[in-house]
Amino acid sequence: MSPQPRPTRVVLVTGPSGAGRSTAINVLEDLGFEAIDNIPLRMIPRLFEGEPLTHPLALGIDVRNRDFSLARLLELHDSLLFQTEGNATLLYLDCRPDVLLRRYSETRRRHPLAQDETPEIGIAREIELLRPVERRADILIDTSHLSPHDLKGELHQWFADATSQKLAVALQSFSFKRGIPHGVDMVFDCRFLANPHWEPTLRAKTGLDAEVQEFVAQDSRLPTFLTKISDMLTFLLPEVDREGKTHVSIAIGCTGGQHRSVVVTEQVARTLAEQGWRVSIGHKELARRGIAPSGNTVVPDIGGTAE
């Protein structure tokens, strides 16, 4: 008999309004959870009907939902604990009343439990309403002194191992004649390598063609260049991952974006995939000419292990 799949992990995210629930939901989604915010409690059991779920779930619970009740939420937690064989987590985001009041003052929003009253009244009312949930919480995070970045780091410590999600690394080749792409984190320049453009038989080809790859590989400086890029990224990517980022973009350019940068991008991508990173490739100039897909393509998992 084949082993039964492990039950899907479920995280119920709640806490007083303004404590950071939306931020937490977004972070969990970046970590690979299927995230649904403000879901009515009566709808949650339906998520487990039919085919087994393939991703862990992060469900934002808000007191503003019409069907919210304290008893129903606690019963739901008990039910999910049984259904997932103990793999259901109640995450409670707490925050001091004075900090919540300051956040409401900054956003000029009305409190959902005090539409016609002052925010102080709504905050006190909600904290008291959720007191039993706070006591039941499996994980309690006080966000009073946490920035969104700090909260992200806390959640990574608790939930990063819940999915197989790793830092996503996007590489793209580009043409310096058209400018450095916007929004990239790192840029490498390979214009010093021998240029296939000056070989008449290679001019119309691209770095995806074997002939161009062989020509660029004949440059004795290429192995050293690739080694130095690999060494730098081997150091940087784990640090970026630990910082809590979910995506890093690397651009590699040459004069026309057709030959050398394409070759180097393909080789760097393969090296990173062999190390176990989730890697995608885009060739900006080739896509502009209709030679390559306009979006990034994922490099197949070669079976390495990232740190």
Describe this structure in words.
The chain is α/β, with parallel strands linked by helices. It is built from 10 helices and 10 strands. It has a 5-stranded parallel sheet. A 5-stranded mixed sheet has the order 7-8-6-9-10. The chain is elongated and about 75 Å long.
Q: What structural class do you assign from the helix and strand content?
A: alpha/beta
Note poorly predicted spans. Answer: 1-6
In helices, the fraction of residues equals: 25-40%
Computed over alpha carbons, the radius of gyration is: 25 Å
Count of discrete alpha- or pi-helical segments spanning 4 or more residues: 10
Strand content: 15-25%
Between the first and last Cα atoms, what is the distance in angstroms?
Answer: 34 Å
Strand order across the biggest sheet?
2-3-1-4-5
Give the ordered list of helices and strands. EHEEHEHHHEHEEHHEHEHE
**Given the C-alpha coordinates, what overall shape results?**
elongated
The description of the largest β-sheet is: 5 strands, parallel
Number of strands: 10
Whole-number mean pLDDT: 85
Structural key phrases:
5-stranded mixed β-sheet; 10 strands; alpha/beta; single chain; about 300 residues; disordered N terminus
Brief rundown of the structure:
This protein has 307 residues and is an alpha/beta fold.
